[in-house]
Amino acid sequence: MADSQLMLKRGPFRSTWLRARKTRTQLVLSRRPRRRLGTLRWCGRRRLRRRLLQAQAAGADWRESGCLVSRAATRRPKSAAPSRAPAAAPAPSGPASLPIPPVRPAGPGRALVLLPLEQGFTFSGICRVTCLYGQVQVLGFTIGQGQPAQEVFSAYTHSRLTINAVHYSMPEKSKKEMKREARALLRSHLNRDDRCWLMKNFSPLCSIVMLEQLKTSTVNFLVSHPGLSYVFVQESPTFQINSEHLALRSVGIRREKKKNGLRLTESALSAMEELVTVSCEVDGCPVILVCGSQDVGKSTFNRYLINQLLNSISCVDYLECDLGQTEFTPPGCISLLNITEPVLGPPFTHQRTPQKMVYYGKPSCKNNYENYIEIIKYVFSSYKRESPLIVNTMGWVSDKGLLLLIDLIRLLSPSHVVQFSSGRSKYMPNLTPDYVDDMDGLYTKSKSRVRNRGFQLAEFTESLEFADEEKESPVVFTGHKLMCVQSDFAFRKTPRNRESHNKVLRDLAVLGYLGQLQPPVPKPLCPLHGLTPYQVPFNAVALRIIHADVAPTHILYAVNASWVGLCKILDDVRGYANGPILLAQTPICDCLGFGICRGIDMEKRLYHILTPVPPEELRNVNCLLVGAISIPQCVFKSQRGLEGTIPYITTDYNCKLPGASEKIGGRETEETREEKVHPKPKLYRKIN
């Protein structure tokens, strides 16, 4: 009986010791520390194992990692062979295994990161990155010493970003001279203790980065909504509270595993290198069309390519043809932008004003392909061919989507087509020049049919407005170079949750745009119902519902509390006395921005519009377009300071009403829905 009790006591002790032994093979503990280890609970053992793994990864002696088990565990056991531990743990050599943590606090809201050559720091959160010495890259954009700080946004909705130390040219100097030069550069940024810490661990070709706390009104507005605080930083129990953790927490970021960071395949890097070389030539203005199925990394490739190009040239043009997942505008738009600043975050962190934009009004072009093509032709006519153009396309590449893509290739005449493919994506034929020539598109014919029937390609592009020097020569399709990229992009989307995930990204883009309404930091956030709207008379603007046929008597119900496009049409609408003015057809016109119709005053016949568009631009607005892009429900549900019933929210909703189903825009799917389509006894309801 005593033996059995002894075995029961020794079982967990031995298993715990074996787990710790597997953690670090060169770990040697005497009898007393082993007894102390056996008395630890499971959380203490897990903490010990985590610390040992971190110490081993850092290349440090496990006894110097600070009170792992007990003071007795830090002494070398007498019974251990003197050569056993050094033989199992080779001495660290070079900067790749520093015996100190790579992050050091440098004051409130600041942290220093010392990166050896070709080492990276993967993180989540937002911060301002300044390169004090050396050269680093973030999402393909190079930040060198002396350059201005960059705002970096690493979100959980996308792959985490990594600050990578890259190779830079170094004159032939001794290490002592390099240290003297680095010390002089750091004197104006750091105190003496921080400089001494850096110089103690300095190595040639290393990079020193300062991370500072960053607060923007857009991010503050995003994370203020319930359920969105996790977008940038997710709190989780940690088993190591040390100076590094506290320093990163004060900045507002968190270290992530390297496997969670962005990784590009060799084919993607090779294609990118070739495109950058072509774009940097004397007359290098290639038209680069990026295509592929959904969730293969097209948008990530575009961001990386834009940043790589901005390392060498001053600007890049970008044509957005993906209605559902737009990069720089709210969803449902086709736009042309001139990009001069790096793109260091997901789309909802860099909403920008396009050079030309048209509001299509829906996240997909299905059942209205001709209007989609006409809008692209209208927007593409503003491209001046003064800088490289990147064309982003939809992920719909099967059936009619593939035929529509062939039409786009013939219309835009790209010089390079980057086609993404993945083992998990649907089959897509290689879009070689011969394949495009031999295939009929949705609105264009193949070359053989053109030759036989006498069809002129100019008929398809007759509405394009080219420059004067280009009107003399006809449009000739000279072919393109196909660049196939094999994607190993890891994503968590499945056909079952893809639509809901995309809906979240579209809502974040709308919230990112509405964040421009907030006052700049450090002023506190102001709720949307606390902002003063613009008053627009009924007879000053025309109305059009894009995505559905609405009876004229119900048109104002649909406009109230809706996401509206602020557009400019050529027709003069000032001749009407009262209004509202209704358009019979959806015009193809410039969209100057977006807003929320937060109320309608029937007595004074006024629309109340909330928008970040400046007043000088609003003077040109004479049309309001309402589409299937809806205001995120969190905007309605999380109205602070309200008492009683929340405006525009109801749980008594009849889904059988015309226009209330999910098929039209997929607008509302939960129990709580907006009251903008459901008839009300009282139309004018402000967000109090």
From TrEMBL:
Residues 73-102, 664-688 are annotated as: Disordered. Keywords: Acetylation, ATP-binding, Isopeptide bond, Kinase, Nucleotide-binding, Nucleus, RNA-binding, rRNA processing, Transferase, Ubl conjugation. Signal peptide: none annotated. GO terms for cellular component: nucleolus. It catalyses: a 5'-end dephospho-ribonucleoside-RNA + ATP = a 5'-end 5'-phospho-ribonucleoside-RNA + ADP + H(+); a 5'-end dephospho-2'-deoxyribonucleoside-DNA + ATP = a 5'-end 5'-phospho-2'-deoxyribonucleoside-DNA + ADP + H(+). Residues 679-688 have a biased composition (Basic residues). GO terms for molecular function: ATP binding; ATP-dependent polynucleotide 5'-hydroxyl-kinase activity; RNA binding. It is an enzyme of class 2 (transferase). Its EC number is 2.7.1.78. This is Polynucleotide 5'-hydroxyl-kinase NOL9. It comes from Enhydra lutris kenyoni (northern sea otter).
